[in-house]
Amino acid sequence: MLRVIINNNADGPTAKQDVYDLGELPVIRNRLILLAIFSSTLAISTPAPAGEMPIFTIRIKDHRFHPEEVQIPANTKVKLIVKNEDATPEEFESHDFNREKIIPGGKQTVVFVGPLKVGTYKFFGEFNPDTAQGRLIAK
Fold first, then answer.
1. Residue 128 and residue 67 share a domain
2. Backbone angles phi, psi at 7, to 5 degrees
3. Are residues 60 and 123 in the same domain?
4. Is 62 found in the same domain as 127?
5. For every one of its 139 residues, what pLDDT tens digit does the chain have, with 9 covering 90 and above?
6. How far apart are CA 95 and CA 122, in angstroms?
7. 30 shares a domain with 12
8. d(Cα 120, Cα 106) in Å, to the nearest integer?
9. Is the model's pTM score more than 0.85?
10. Quick check: is 50 in a domain?
11. What is the Cα–Cα distance from 7 to 20, expressed in whole angstroms?
């Protein structure tokens, strides 16, 4: 006789143990049943993927960020696509959220940020700090 015991890896009142007696079934049928049980258990116990990561685009044009202010959701990791439309390179940098990345002229890059608490976070272009200034506002 074949007995299968599956735990749901939970503690406390949600802990559960399923016991399956497969009896004297032929070996191949047992394996198929085990596969079905295991697959359904994975489907039930695997958390659903979170929603898509928010994406924001920031352009660099004439050594300025456009838009200069970007509102992002607080406490959420976000993806920034930074497009350098100038012919010269720029360094996207922030001491507030600890990022720096050089973007060649005419190219783009991806910068992942967060999760950030509610607040304002400055970023700037290191090669043109007088004009290339921006802010992320986490709300």
1. yes
2. -100, 150
3. yes
4. yes
5. 556 565 555 555 555 666 666 565 555 566 655 555 555 444 333 333 456 899 999 999 999 999 999 999 999 999 999 999 999 999 999 999 999 999 999 999 999 999 999 999 999 999 999 999 999 999 9
6. 8
7. yes
8. 28
9. no
10. no
11. 12
Long-range pairs, 58-62, Cβ under 8 A, ≥24: 58/82, 58/83, 58/92, 58/134, 59/83, 59/85, 60/84, 60/85, 60/86, 60/90, 60/92, 60/103, 60/125, 60/132, 61/85, 61/86, 62/86, 62/131
With 0-12 / 13-18 / 19 or more C-beta atoms within 10 angstroms meaning exposed / middle / buried, residue 42 is exposed
- Cβ–Cβ under 8 Å, residues 131 and 63: yes
Assess whether 66 and 132 both reside in one domain. Answer: yes
Q: Which structural domain range is residue 18 located in? A: 2-45
